[in-house]
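User: Can you predict the 3D structure for this chain?
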Amino acid sequence: MDSANIRDNTACVSYFCTTGSGLEPFLVEEVKRKLSASDVEFIPGRVFFSTGAPVDCINQLKSAERLFLSLHRSPPIEAPVSQAKATSVVTQSIVGDSKVWEAALCTWSRLRGRRAEDKTTRKRKREEEAGEEGHAEVTGGQGHPRDSQSDQSVDPADPEQPRPTFRVSCCSSGAVAKRFGPQDLSRLIGRAITKQLNWRADLKEPQLEVNVYLSDDHCVVGILLSSHPLARRGYMRHTGLRSTVAWAMTSVSSMKEGAVIIDPMCGVGTILLEAAQECPNACFLGLDSDAGQLQKAKENVEFAQLQERVQLLQASAMGIPMPSGSVDVVLCDVPFGRKFSCGYSMADALPEIVNEMDRVLCVGGSLVLLVSLQLSTLLKKKILKDALPCPPATSTTCCTPPETLGTGTPACLAHSHGGDTHLSDCSTPQPCCSLRTHSIHKVSLGNTDALIHTYIKTH
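Assistant: Here is the predicted structure, written as structure tokens:
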């Protein structure tokens, strides 16, 4: 998505998006490039920006998880000692000036109203193209019921209109979290909003969801713009690796139009589909030894209507059926220490797998690996010990030294590509001297961390 011609006819609006740990630099670059955003800043897990782009364009961000209208950011609040003091602190520091909330409500209502109009226009166009005029039952799976309720405009200046309903979602850490749990804080903030703004609390189906983030360093308040997560892909039937991490892997590769891109351990095809969405005129091949995973990948490809550009093949990553130097980009989420069906561990097989990826990669091509912290040490010691890092990338990289690498979780590999290939002696592997480190990014996979390593083949 190009940043040209996406400006709205209204003034810039302040937003923030949540994202996974380690993905903040990716989201910063994305909002600048795709939305021509200004005032871009980030704190752990959140990126703040201003833009006049339509909400539908913002909803297409790939490295974001949820989108919020930003009310205010303020210095951290002091953890109150007593309940009475807590109410006063919450009212002054979190709720603050009621005019700010009324203005935010107007902006929220305008954005949601325009989004509802765009939905109706697109739905009518689809029905006309399909010859289904008057078939109002077709909804196309449009997300959470609260979205349709929230699409109704709320005019705070209209005394005849009921006051908006809301609920509070609170996340806290540090000193505040030690004294008050998230539910206690949500109740305190909700009471203050009701008293100060005369809004009505509704925990089941509110029109607005107020999000509050409190830590020893930050106090952030926003209003959720859609209950449908941005990270939930409409073109994915089966989920595997986190879509935001898969997209980040494609963004650091050297993908270009007409390129040949492969994933030798594709699992359900998450990385391939993210890459295909970003590079519509490239060719993609996914390999996996597990027939069950390939079947899910096939269903994902068909669901995304990418059968003409994404091919799937049951084969082993230790015997990639491609000529040497024929691939422009290799993307791979390496399994976390799983066993091969032939009895070898991933630690034993990884040197040969990386050598095979190096073989099929053309000079100037990029290899992007997501590996675990444990396998990263193996890569450093056994495979890439003679490789020297390239000059640092221009984007924000490396909160971890180039010696460490990281992983993900697709299917186990079986040795299924012929009988003349065998595991090498992993005690004396050949270093991949043609691969040079380009960038390293540490990312969170939820319950564990991993690292995205990018290498460039130099000769």
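Residues 145 and 205 are 8 Å apart (CA to CA). Residues 1-9, 132-146, 386-430 have pLDDT under 50 and may be disordered.
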